[in-house]
Amino acid sequence: MENTNQTRVTEFVFLALVDTPLLNALLFLIFAVIYLMTLAGNATIILIIRLNSCLHSPMYFFLSFLALVEIWYTTTTVPKMLANFLQESKTISFAGCLTQLYFFVSLGGTECILLTVMAYDRYVAICSPLHYSVIMNSWVCLRLAAISGFIGFVNGLVHTILTSRLPFCKTNIINHFICDIPPLLKLSCSDTYVNEIVLSIFGGSVILGSFLLTLISYGYIITTILRIRTAEGRRKAFSTCTSHLTVVSIFFGTVTYIYMHPTSKYILDQDKVVFIIYSTVTPLINPFIYSFRNREVQSVFRKVMKSSVRF
After folding, report:
1. What is the DSSP string of 52-63?
2. What is the CATH superfamily name and number for domain 11-310?
3. Whole-structure pTM over 0.90, yes or no?
4. E strand spans, the chain
5. Is the pLDDT of residue 35 over 70?
């Protein structure tokens, strides 16, 4: 017999981070600045790499693709978050919520795979430098980028379909500021065991699998670097990896914390802080960590700025 107390949810309501208009205005300003800086930083990286032939190498191809993913990734969530800071009614339609969930999870999965691909690129460059241009040719780079997107978007589709089939009858208030898997599972009035199993299998395969392959690549890289006889040679070889290692540590550390524990263990108020780092701060700092610390990018950036000043 169908339970008449269960009604179909047509929209969700986000729970406000703060209660006072002044604090909402302050948070709007902070996140708006972060968002604009994220767009500007990643767009600058793409433009610099695109316009300068000396940066047309596999490493910078993947870096520009990462910057593009970061732009779309943060755009999936931040504009709606900014609007909610200024609106009394912080609602999102059921279809809009699932759409946001799909692109957020898909782009996050794409970034996981892409970071692993970038680790493999560094492995080939350091461990097989004489064959690097042959192994990492343009066709291979395009295929690896396409595979990253394919896996990420298939992963997002699976989670979105399973989430869309859940009944939501407890409440339509999401204790979060975006539609994500953990808070939506919390709202369901049915058993979410299947969703959690799929999250563990697919999420584990994408997140932990990517992280494991990245560690394997760096295991070979470190072994090769230690065999270099001169300290200067070891320093130069390892300097090409430090930025990527920093990004990997921040990204995989936060994403593993959010998605790799059971729903019953989620403390959404606490997880919001980690989520802010994962969804807004990381896309902001990646261009600075991975690109603007790079001497080649700095050199090209200075040349572009000098050319702009002349005009």
Report:
1. -GGG-SHHHHHH
2. Rhodopsin 7-helix transmembrane proteins (1.20.1070.10)
3. no
4. 11-14, 91-93, 173-174
5. yes
